[in-house]
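pasting for ref
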Amino acid sequence: MIVDDCQACEPVNRLVNELLEKGFVIIEQRMEDYHFHQLYIKLQGNIDLLNLCRIDGFSSVENKFICECHWSTIEFITSRSDVYFC
């Protein structure tokens, strides 16, 4: 994965590709820090599927995973599949 001419590290590539295969969609991606190759990626999908993914190489903070090698952030938002009746 390349964002703003910067190659993502192996842990970010692995996790993002795994989530895309599970139906997640990239909502936003950008370079946060060119010097450290730090990326920000926002994904939307079924958060329950995160339990089925390998998440080695990341620290977890609320709805975000932060890569331990470059501090890249992968943030998650849930899909709106709930139906509300008024």
